[in-house]
Amino acid sequence: MVLEYIIIAIYSLALVLIFMYALAQLNLLFNYRSAQKKKDTSPKFDLKNINEVPYVTIQLPVYNEMYVMERLLNNIVTLEYPREKLEIQVLDDSTDQSVETTRAQIKKLQKTGINIQHIQRTNREGFKAGALKEGLEIAKGEFIAIFDADFLPQKNWLLETIPYFKNNEIGVVQTRWDHINRDYSTLTKIQAFALDAHFTLEQVGRNTKGHFINFNGTAGVWRKECILDAGNWEGDTLTEDLDLSYRAQLKKWKFKYLEHVKTPAELPVIISAARSQQFRWNKGGAENFQKMTKRVLLDKDISLKTKIHSVLHLLNSSMFLMVLIVAILSIPMLYIKNEHPHLKSYFYMISFFIVSSIIFFICYWYMFKKSYGGGIKSFLKFTGTFFTFFSIALGFSFHNSIAVLEGHFGKKSDFIRTPKFNIKTLKDSWKKNKYIHKKISTNTIIEGIMTLYFAFGMYSAFVVGNQEGDFGLFPFHLMLFLGFGYVFWKSIFSRA
């Protein structure tokens, strides 16, 4: 019985933590709604007055981006901004033939009068953070715009973002990501769905109340002074963007998030690319929790509410671990429930935590409705998308939990780039991409075992308790079965 009580305690704690996170999301929804009623009265530079036009450096950190470099450079040079006040740094850490093709393209652009530099390092120390730091040393710009290789800002992007820096307290202006290949596949649709929630609900919800938000690594602009004041880029975590964001805000710099400025980008189209991206984001989140939490909690100038939101923000990736714990223990809990009738009242009590799922459903529906409109058809489409997203997110929970645990326990790993494909339509193929790793990982094998485990969970619903069974957890186990099955199947048969 001791083991059973331990299972109950761990299961309950995980449910409580998920519920707390859900309540924070609900609070962000209220914040978001209140933000829609506010008129932006921010002071802005008048860029029509040449005397108010600041010097801007665009940094493009790239590493083996053979398929998208030409597209990236052709796009960046179309940005509308006075040429005499603009420089472009291509921070090229590449080790393949893309170095030569990039160099050749840059030389052609230089001949047209564009101020663009091809900057290479002798090593990849600090990975992306290291490249940004080295570029910053020679950057002439008062403001530093950063774009990853798969981002395609619109021509007026600088004209929409730079004016907000007239407020000397603003250290960062971040824009919303858009998705050029949203409808390519189920995988891209659910990634877009999740990112849209972050860039509406979370970024706006936190920013409007002065809570800490994060620069998203790309599609944003830094004040150079802010970077230096916060201690410059550091490469000791896999999410250098989150790290510097928190250090800057601890230095009392303000961040400005622009929901209305969309920056199109390419989503990973295969599961191996999504895996590497998810692993880096989630491990980096856990690393920053370890690095930043104490600093946030001990800062006397930060409000209690902001501290709570900051800690939960830093724990964002750790929710995958909580979900995995709940998932794995839900099957033993099913048997415990039916073998110990005296615990009936307890199980009635913990059923309350289904409210967490309802809260997430409401928050995501509000986001979806704002983007695509309301009505029955829209709601039905949303419902299908939500449960597809939820199932596949559950399928990623083991992989992401490993990342989280590595982050919390300080296991270091290299910065693994997300392969880019230059894919927009269903006619485009990724199969000849040289950057794809086709090795089947141990995690994939375990995900296959988990698929069978949750199939057993569904079977258990029919055999536990009395002759009528117990189907309370059946929908949950079905989603887990489908989610893990999807991730396993795609990983095995598409090597992606």
Number of H- or I-type helical stretches: 17
| Major sheet size, sense and barrel closure | 7 strands, mixed
CATH class of the largest domain: Alpha Beta
Please identify the structural class as seen in this structure.
alpha/beta
Please give the radius of gyration in angstroms: 24 Å
Number of strands: 7
Mean pLDDT: 93
Q: In order across it, which strands form the biggest sheet? A: 3-2-1-4-6-5-7
Q: Architecture of the largest domain, CATH level 2?
A: Alpha-Beta Complex
Number of domains: 2
Low-confidence stretches: none
Query: Rough shape?
Result: globular
In CATH, what is the homologous superfamily of the largest domain?
Answer: Spore Coat Polysaccharide Biosynthesis Protein SpsA, Chain A
Separation, N- and C-terminal Cα atoms: 44 Å
Give the % helix: 40-55%
How much strand? 5-15%
CATH topology of the largest domain: Spore Coat Polysaccharide Biosynthesis Protein SpsA, Chain A
The SSE string, one letter per element, is HEHEHEHEHEHEHHEHHHHHHHHH
Describe the 3D structure.
The chain has 496 residues and is α/β, with parallel strands linked by helices. The protein has two domains: 2-32 and 317-493, no CATH class; 46-276, Spore Coat Polysaccharide Biosynthesis Protein SpsA, Chain A, CATH 3.90.550.10. It contains 17 helices and seven strands. The protein has helices at residues 2-35, 69-76, 98-111, 127-138, 157-161, 186-207, 224-229, 240-250, 271-298, 304-314, 319-339, 344-350, 355-372, 376-395, 397-408, 442-463, 474-493, and strands spanning 56-62, 86-92, 116-120, 143-146, 170-179, 220-223, 254-265. The protein has a seven-stranded mixed sheet, with helices on both faces. Helix 2 links the parallel strand 1 (56-62) and strand 2 (86-92). Helix 6 crosses helix 13 (355-372), helix 9 (271-298) packs parallel to helix 15 and helix 16 (442-463) packs antiparallel against helix 17 (474-493). The longest helix is centred in the first third of the chain and has 34 residues, at 2-35. It starts with a helix and ends with a helix. The mean pLDDT is 93.
